[in-house]
Write a structure and sequence with these properties.
The chain has 18 helices and 13 strands. It is of the alpha/beta class. This is Lipid-A-disaccharide synthase.
Length: 389
């Protein structure tokens, strides 16, 4: 078939980062195959890209066993709806974007229905349960990985795999110069800026933002010259933020839909772990990575995770280049102290910046969304090679 065939691709993205990855991939697909149709589960980015979003994933982007159990009913409804779409509409390809356990179940169902499955963003098998490679291999037709070191885990088990590049390398580019951003955001270029990135999930906002705001208050008391900026994730509503910011002791500049411009203004950032920490690394801004889960979820995770870090910059570097404050270590005092170190200790700050530049170099030149579009079209046309050398 030619690229003008009317293909239907079902996307399943359960989190904010997956919503963005799917949107970028679909935009690239449309350039190569204008007649292609996209349907599925996702959020505002996928809608803006022209995908027919049948289920809004804003309410199910949770992490941790306790959190998942609380949202089990809604997650189950989403899964059943997508299964029904597969059974009724028989899409030409299912693209599962991260959201591991949910998408594994969906992939199994699709495979049984004769639908090809492309899994985008590998489960972190290198961090926990490496035996899952075989499990995923049975449910998919191709695994697209975003870190170069991931391919070997799948090659060992003869699971079709391709390194496509990390999508963040392409998209992490400010729209304006730093000086233009200071003016646009009403910031004083002669005063330091601290970034506050509390996450893109509702439970992260509840657990982490109060600690960050308390740390900001401590910082402001010691350094009245500091300014604070908070890039608001699309998946977080104004009401969710307002609930916490109403009692903030310091002024916070809220920035919408311009996260990279906001981050490039910062001299130091406090951020949740996840994609955000990698994006900050790509922009070369010193940071401290934080996270807090429900107690039982953390207890269970400690027994399953096989690596010493949770922050992507540290995982890629293979060493602690950025401080992590996890669970009970995440206090306003510890967070404020680390931000002050990053602002005041010139040698410490430069070592951090140099290490982040090395991480950026490791990730290469990007092209992730274009590579994913090409891979999807190969699968749709039955031309997929097993593994790029």
């Amino acid at each position: 078939m030619t690229n003008q065939a009317v293909y239907k691709v079902l996307f399943s993205a359960g989190e904010s980062s997956g919503d963005q990855h799917a949107a970028n991939m679909f935009l690239e697909l449309k350039q190569r195959c204008p007649a292609i149709r996209g349907i599925g589960m996702g959020g505002s980015k996928m809608r803006q890209a022209g995908i027919d979003v049948r289920y809004d994933s804003a309410g199910i982007g949770v992490i941790g066993l306790v959190e998942i159990l609380k949202h089990y009913g809604e997650i189950r409804r989403a899964l059943n709806l997508l299964k029904q779409i597969i059974a009724d509409e028989k899409p030409d390809l299912l693209v599962c974007v991260d959201y591991k356990e949910f998408n594994l179940k969906l992939a199994r169902f699709a495979k049984n229905q004769g639908v090809k499955v492309l899994f985008y963003v590998s489960p972190q098998v290198w961090a926990w349960r490496p035996g899952r490679v075989v499990t995923y291999g049975k449910a998919i037709d191709m695994m697209a990985v975003i870190f170069p070191f991931e391919t070997r885990y799948y090659e060992t088990e003869n699971v079709p795999v391709r390194y496509v590049g990390h999508p963040s390398v392409d998209k992490v580019h400010p729209q304006r110069s730093r000086s233009e951003d200071f003016e646009a955001f009403g910031l004083d270029p002669n005063r330091p800026v601290v970034g506050i990135l509390p996450g893109s999930r509702g439970n992260e906002i509840k657990r982490i933002l109060p600690v960050m705001l308390a740390a900001a208050a401590k910082l402001a008391a010691q350094r009245p010259d500091l300014q604070f900026v908070l890039p608001q994730a699309d998946s977080i509503s104004d009401a969710e933020l307002a609930e916490h910011l109403a009692n903030s002791a310091v002024a916070i500049h809220i920035v919408k839909q311009q996260p990279y411009d906001a981050i490039q203004c910062c001299d130091a950032v406090m951020t949740t772990s996840g994609t955000a920490s990698l994006e900050i690394a790509l922009l070369g801004v010193p940071m401290v990575i934080v996270y807090r889960l429900a107690a039982f979820s953390y207890w269970l995770g400690k027994r399953l995770v096989k690596i010493p870090f949770i922050g992507l910059p540290n995982i890629i570097a293979g060493k602690a280049i950025v401080k992590e404050l996890i669970q009970e270590q995440l206090t306003a005092e510890n967070l404020a102290a680390e931000i002050l170190n990053l602002l005041a200790d010139g040698d410490y700050r430069q070592r951090c910046i140099s290490a982040l530049q090395a991480v950026k170099h490791q990730l290469g030149d990007g092209g992730g969304s274009k590579n994913m579009a090409q891979l999807a079209l190969e699968m749709l046309n039955g031309q997929t090679a097993a593994q790029d050398g």
